[in-house]
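Q: What changes when adenosine-5'-triphosphate is included in the input?
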Amino acid sequence: MNLPNLIPKKSQLSESRTGSKGSFGHFLEKGKIDLSHGEMLYIEDLEVSFDGFKAIRGLNLDIRVGELRCIIGPNGAGKTTMMDVITGKTGPRNADVKGRVFLGQTIDLLKLNEPQIAQIGIGRKFQKPTVFENLKVWENFELARKTDKSWYLSLNASLDESAKDLIAQTIQKVGLEEQAFEDAGLLSHGQKQRLEIGMLLMQQPELLLLDEPAAGMTDEETMQLADLLNSLRGTCSIIVVEHDMEFVAALSGNDGIVTVLAEGSVLSEGTMQQIKNDPKVIESYLGR
Ligand SMILES: Nc1ncnc2c1ncn2[C@@H]1O[C@H](COP(=O)(O)OP(=O)(O)OP(=O)(O)O)[C@@H](O)[C@H]1O
Ligand SMILES: [Mg+2]
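A: The predicted holo structure follows.
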């Protein structure tokens, strides 16, 4: 494997390739999803039952293009189930699902299966990092590339310049330049989580779903992750489910919207300040 120039210095990355602010927005294929109304995800009256038990009951949610939305709520509130529905893991094929789940104006996610939804631009990160431990960090990024799903082939194929650029930018973005040529298995938990987020970014998602990404992280790793996610603002829409309130505060700032789920529907929605002062939220979640 010969990749001596894989990680160009920042100054070597041409402005036109990196985008003016170092984002890689021009790589995104936004055309597939109709975002003309500024809406990325629209969930209306969603109900999901498993053998008669309603895990989601009348859920409504609206995520704007480029928004970073935090979702909090007690155990069993239906947060993971909601992500399962958005990504097609749970759908009319394997559960009792009612309501509407739309990506942009036109894509009915309840009609698509999991691979189709991944293909169309929804990336999901589960709690446990799933990286290729025996491969170098950069090889993990290369395998995650969108263009060639047959990754055995892509690993041996020579990388074109734009692919190298994208890998280099993504490695920089997630702060793993120094680890690029190390085995992924040697990374810390926090670094592995950032690696996996970087691998998702290689697929240039329109919508990224992160389920408790800060779990098991040190305080320092948690804040590094918050910085990373904040830096992605505007690149894609992001939904973060999290229990760590400091992390949520770091992501939502003063005016970001936080959604509180409880018993399968939205209990409250508003800025961090509004949520914290909502008696319903204090009673069902924060006060406990
Ligand atoms: N496949 C399934 N079959 C039966 N019940 C399920 C299934 N998936 C989820 N549930 C139930 O649905 C409810 C919501 O679960 P879910 O995992 O979505 O909650 P959560 O908000 O993610 O909780 P946590 O904060 O603990 O991760 C729970 O009562 C759970 O037991
Ligand atoms: Mg969960």
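Observations recorded in class: The first strand starts at residue 39 and ends at 50.
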